[in-house]
Amino acid sequence: MASQRTKGVDSARRVLEILLQFSQSKPELTVDEIIEVHGISLPSAYRYLSLLREMYLIEERGKGSYVLSPEILQLAQAAERTLDYRVEAQPVLDRLSASTNETALYLRQLNDAAVCLAISESDHAINISFQPGHVMPLHAGAAAKVLLAGFSKTRRAQYLDRLEPALEPAARERLDDELTALRGSRFAVSEGEVDEGVWACAAPVYARGQLIGAVSVVAPAYRVGEDARASIGASVRATAQELEAVLADVH
Fold this sequence. Notes:
Number of strands: 9
Strand order of the largest sheet: 6-5-4-9-8-7
Order of helices and strands: HEHHEEHHEEEHHHEEEH
Distance between the termini: 34 Å
Shape: globular
Helix content: 40-55%
Low-confidence stretches: none
Number of domains: 2
CATH class of the largest domain: Alpha Beta
Strand content: 15-25%
Structural class: alpha+beta
Radius of gyration: 20 Å
């Protein structure tokens, strides 16, 4: 993912990396796990953990085992209030998922990344990388590329320049051509770019003339033939327009 590392804050970065190691699937961490993931010494691990405890962000569950503290809930609630239009998008996504019988997503750009804000899963849900709160690159996947296509040429070039590993010149040229086309068509399709065997299509959502997000449907490629893809694509375009109308009423 594209990123520009801030210099002179290695210790602060390590503390934040440890904090971000906690997740829904890994709510409890041991010192040994922290040492293994971050390649640090035992004294360093305890020093970073002590700082997080001092700030009431984690607490010790058992000897050498740590969990997030209730203080984190305040951060989560604050973050939830900034999830632009998640509440408005959810019922629209629910209708899209019901009509297509596939999983529907709403994403927005966050700095140099795409983040999923809302999801409506079908009865036969699939495992995908885009999940609420997960930060993903902007140059792979239909919805992410819709967001990247909204960048100016200069900003897009800066994003691509920061990619690690860098794209091969031919791949970068193909992507640049695709993004230019997407900017005009306002519709994107991808297959296997983020998750193997997964097909996706996406359309941009605008508010007050500004690109604020993307609506997408994802499905196993084997389950959606040519006719189904065309039908889903039409539904995604219509849903993006529906959400725009909802947001116009909100404002």
